[in-house]
């Protein structure tokens, strides 16, 4: 796939919160696929869209257009029922919508200098957050109702993050994550961690939300790269896995928790206590696996960890590795799924499980309108 045409056929792509399906927006309309089978089960050919966000275990889809005509205005948010093929509600704004996030209780709409929080059932506006100019529409959102945080940039000159609790609408904390402005951020599904990358793209930091303290600092690479996406795996009994995609075309995977990582982290913490951040970051081991040329260089891509399973020793029942399923949509119109195995010694191995062109998938019985 890496040698295929690099033209961006996809304008936007996102997975729902449990990654059971994903949606893409093209110049022609919206398509939704089943992540497990790759089957196209919904399409709507009505024009170009720049935002498509789907609620998990639900037929609710939020879409934002990419044209000047009223039906495709970037200032208009349409909540759409994919089961019936009908529009439910519309919200109109004075400026372009840059990002949309949802869970079962809240709808978050990000504009350049304001972020709106709505009750998703009544669409009553609950709060308006004034923000620094957010040209990239950066926003991280944890779907967990018990730790439902919204993360927004707190500065245009450095990588500071402002965290709000979307349920009680109170400011939670501010985290100074990087010296350079932010390029990407994501919250773990349980709201425990926030991962960030700056415009440099060489260091990815993970902070614990409850204490606003740095837990991990990973060196992605030596040379700068634009980070397109960050995503945590589903939190369970196993250590969290964080994946990142960037302009180099590579996919990076980081493990947050095997024993060897913890030993190395303790060494880094000791050194970090007596040395500046820039030095301690450089000393932090990579602790990650790299899949090179997963997408053509410069082509935007979005990857998620769909599931994580433990691999045990048959005789001792000891966990000797974990196996993750990583799905990726590249904006040149390709879907790929990889199996990633991480051993207890922090050794990474990748295997491509499937790959297909999203533009050529034909559904057996698509819901369309």
TrEMBL record:
Signal peptide as annotated in the record: none
Membrane topology annotation: Peripheral membrane protein
Gene Ontology cellular component annotations, sorted alphabetically: phagophore assembly site membrane
Superkingdom as given in the UniProt entry: Eukaryota
Keyword Repeat: yes
Keywords carried by this UniProt record: Repeat, WD repeat
Gene3D superfamilies to which the protein is assigned, alphabetical: YVTN repeat-like/Quinoprotein amine dehydrogenase
Entry's localization field: Preautophagosomal structure membrane
SMART domains according to UniProt: WD40 (SM00320)
Family, similarity comment: Belongs to the WD repeat PROPPIN family.
Name this polypeptide is given: Autophagy-related protein 18b
Originating species: Cannabis sativa (Hemp)
Gene transcribed to yield this protein: LOC115724600
């Amino acid at each position: 796939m890496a040698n295929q045409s690099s033209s961006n056929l996809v304008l936007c792509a996102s997975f729902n919160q449990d990654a059971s399906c994903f949606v893409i927006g093209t110049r022609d309309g919206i398509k939704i696929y089943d992540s497990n089978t790759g089957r196209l089960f919904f399409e709507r050919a009505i024009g170009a869209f720049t935002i498509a966000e789907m609620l998990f275990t639900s037929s609710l889809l939020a879409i934002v257009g990419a044209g000047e005509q009223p039906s495709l205005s970037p200032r208009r948010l349409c909540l759409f029922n994919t089961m019936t093929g009908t529009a439910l509600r519309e919200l109109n704004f004075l400026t372009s919508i840059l990002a949309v996030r949802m869970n079962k209780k809240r709808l978050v709409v990000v504009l350049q200098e304001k972020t709106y929080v709505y009750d998703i059932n009544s669409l009553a506006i609950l709060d308006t957050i004034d923000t620094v100019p957010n040209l990239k529409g950066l926003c991280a959102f944890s779907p967990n109702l018990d730790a439902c945080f919204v993360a927004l940039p707190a500065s245009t000159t450095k990588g500071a993050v402002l965290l709000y609790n979307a349920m009680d609408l109170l400011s939670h904390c501010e985290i100074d994550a990087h010296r350079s402005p932010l390029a990407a951020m994501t919250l773990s599904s349980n709201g425990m961690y926030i991962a960030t990358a700056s415009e440099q793209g060489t260091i990815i930091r993970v902070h614990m939300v409850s204490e606003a303290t740095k837990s991990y600092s990973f060196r992605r690479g030596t040379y700068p790269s634009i980070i397109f996406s960050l995503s945590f795996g589903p939190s369970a009994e196993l250590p969290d896995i964080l994946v990142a995609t960037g302009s180099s075309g590579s996919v990076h995977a980081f493990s947050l928790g095997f024993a060897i990582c913890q030993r190395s982290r303790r060494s880094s913490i000791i050194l970090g206590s007596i040395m500046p951040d820039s030095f301690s970051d450089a000393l932090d081991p990579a602790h990650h696996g790299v899949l090179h040329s997963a997408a053509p260089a410069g082509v935007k891509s979005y990857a998620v960890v769909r599931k994580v399973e433990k691999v045990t020793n048959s005789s001792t029942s000891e966990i000797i590795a974990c196996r993750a399923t990583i799905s990726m949509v590249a904006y040149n119109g390709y879907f790929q799924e990889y199996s990633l195995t991480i051993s207890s010694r922090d050794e990474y191995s990748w295997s491509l499980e499937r790959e297909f062109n999203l533009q050529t998938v034909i559904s057996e019985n698509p819901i369309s309108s």
